[in-house]
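Justification of resources, computational component.

The compute hours requested in this renewal are based largely on the per-chain cost of generating structure records like the one below. Each record pairs the submitted sequence with a full structure-token output. That output is archived, and it is also reused by downstream analysis tasks.
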Amino acid sequence: MPRFPRTATALWLVLLPGAALAQQAPPEPPEVTGAEVDAGETEAADEIVVTGARERGAVIGDVPPEQQLSPADIRAYGVSSVAELLEELSPQTGSGRGRGGEAPVVLLEGRRIGSFREIRELPTEAILRVDILPEEVALKYGYSANQRVVNFVLRPRFRAITVEVEGNAPTDGGTASGEAEVNYLRINRLGRLNVELEVEAQSALTEAERDLVPDSGGSPFDLAGNVVAARGAAEIDPALSALAGTRVTVAPVTSATPGLADFAAGANIANVTDVGAFRTLRPSSQSVRGNAVLARTIFGDVAATATLGFDFGDSRALLGLPGIDLSLPATSPFSPFGTEVRVLRAIDALGPLLRETQSREVEAAISANGNAGDWRWTLTGNYTRNQTDTETDRSLDLATLQAGVTAGGANPFGALPALALLPADTARSVSNVARVDGVANGDLFALPAGDVSTSVRLGLRSQSLDSRSVRAGLVQTADIGRRSANAQVNLDLPITSRRAGVLDAIGDLSLNANAEVDRLSDFGTLTTLGYGLNWSPIRALRLIASVSHEEGAPSPQQVGNPVIQTPNVRVFDFVNGETVDVTLVEGGNPGLRADNRDVFKLGANLRPFDDIDLSLRADYTSSTIRDLISGFPTATAEIEAAFPDRFTRDPAGRLIEIDNRPVNFARSERSQIRYGFNLSLPITGTLQRRAREVREAGGDPRAVYREAYGLPERGNRRREQPPAEGAATPEGQARAAETAEAERPRRGRGGGGGFGRFGGGRGGAQGGGRFQFSAFHTVRLTETILIRDGLPELDLLDGSATGSRGGQPRHEVQLRTGFTKDGFGARLNADWQSGTRVDGGTPAETLFFDDFATFDLRLFANLGQMPDLVRDNRWLRGTRVTLAVSNLFNARLGVRDAAGVVPLGYQPALLDPVGRSVRVELRKLF
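The structure output for this chain reads:
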């Protein structure tokens, strides 16, 4: 296994000096520490106070958040970083308007960021608020309206060193993984410094470590050997068939000098070697990742951020044993046959075939934000270099051995001479992406209902992809360069306004329009046009409608990735109704065309109560995509009929190779309804309740917290030794706790942007807990693909498929629930999808995919919120212990054919090799 180069260490050393400089910064008032936040000691200051004024860090425009999370809400998720929080929020942040799989737009303090790396590993304790907004807000920041928006607002002062270690293993055994991470974060009046390093490793999981039935499809290679008919022949030897009393197509090798009777004894029963130990279901891997972010104010009023990071990863997969296919002439002294035959053997002397992959990514990003009069501007720049090297073992060099067998000097049934592998196939791709974007937002002029605002973006991008692959000695290269210049403008026009008293009976109504032009060096000029409306007829309800027409080019990787061949890939052949091992060809397709999308969306968001954090959301989305760019679909009869040149079969009709490179489909049509709700309720904590009772009795609630945590009275605090920088002082802890209990949240009518009540106040947590529940149901109304004109349309909801896991489920449900109180927390996530079917070449070859549900459970304990434990063990402050079980019931997708038999290629352990896994995590904030 290749070791990580010293470059990783060198890069990490470059990132460290900033942390040392931060330690030498001039003293200032103590920051909030991670341990204080973890213990809930800052809850009063954390509380989102909703007034008519604009919130700090709110997004621009008049579209308020659909959902807003307070620190107590965030803490209830029990996650460690921004990236993990976004993963938990995926049901709320998904969008049906994109091409599929788009991540949400991420903002920081209502501003664009240069790279997601800038905030990816920030600890969640540093977050003061999270706003989740609809796709229309993305337009105001120069993005396309196919991604929802998540805005993170950080605490103004914060300091923490976070250390986290975790181990993960499936309950079925066979593999394990581990991860260690250290993170330094400091936020103060000077800016922000974040330095992070993470290492991760996982062991390989082989087929032998799962209960799998060996695959009998494909050629019967075996360590002892099998004899099969010569190419084009229907049987091995008529004399053997006569002796066995049946036509013989395969016969096992039983000795080094077998006779015809030996082969007749095992006629049509092949030798089978279990090669599971030589094939991985999941490769071994190791990775290291580093990141450094420095944010400062320059030129007096410009907020600037610089980010530098790297991701290095290595993986190693086992692809099975190499096989030999020797032609044995009838004239050989070692042949008992009257005709030429083939001898198939597997060779274990050299071990399994390997695929080793190395990936090296380095990224640098900058961003600058400022104001010019009443206009806000943002300048972002980003450069990413990614290099991937792949080496795949090929088969054995049989030229000398075959010559010996043909000449009669080598016995294919006995001990074989030493063999060597042919030169390995190699592939390298190097991509470089550089981009600069400038965005300006401001008001153009005033109308009676409000200001007409606009957002303008200008951008330049340079992309290059150099690839080189060597397959069987054949060298293929690609050098793709793409230069693009783009411009986008968005216009928001207020029509009516309750606040301004303009047609206030209608409510708040605004229109928007946007246009984008993208000039690409290799695809010409692509355009995007869109328009919509934003209407709030009553304060509790907001409706959004939008239409967009967009052209999109394939990525350089889709066009020019190097060609890679992977042997022994198990697939299900729907034409023959069998599981076979094939060679899979992957890479880029230089013949791809740009696609064209028309999307319509109608969405509604309802917050029916002022004092209950409940929001209901419903969206209808319809899209038509022409020249859809897609990965190559699964090997169904419909797909092979449309792309016969992508499938290779042997003379017997058995599938042996699939060209899996991406293609264009003529048209795709989709429509769906997605609806659901989010509910978050505060739970009174034990100390909170006791403090309230003391206050109502006329006592001092501070005494409750001092007694619980074993803190001295303010006047009795020892002064001989000052506390560590940023550490929670006893009086500060009690004062924060008292304030948290005494201050009640003030609720107003303003939302995230100060307009209306959306995103309104959260229930006051004051150190208490949370109950959270969200449920979303997606109903797909249509999902069709026309491969090309003149062919039947594929209905993915009714028997057709483009993926190997069945058709498109008509129904999907996502449930997220959580409970936290007094430092203990539990979360249970559930996902369910309805069953599908995939029609085969005949009714007997149809596959049925069952309904499928998975449950994930996470239990965690924030020890710093447990005064009985922390009182005498102060070092436990800021400590969290987590026990997580993924796929709680060890569920796997069930697949059966028309006879109720599970195809070998759809065995449960192949669809999900890991199954249920248990993760233990220990996290400490200093």
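Residues 1-27, 47-51, 715-766 have pLDDT under 50 and may be disordered. The radius of gyration is 32 Å.
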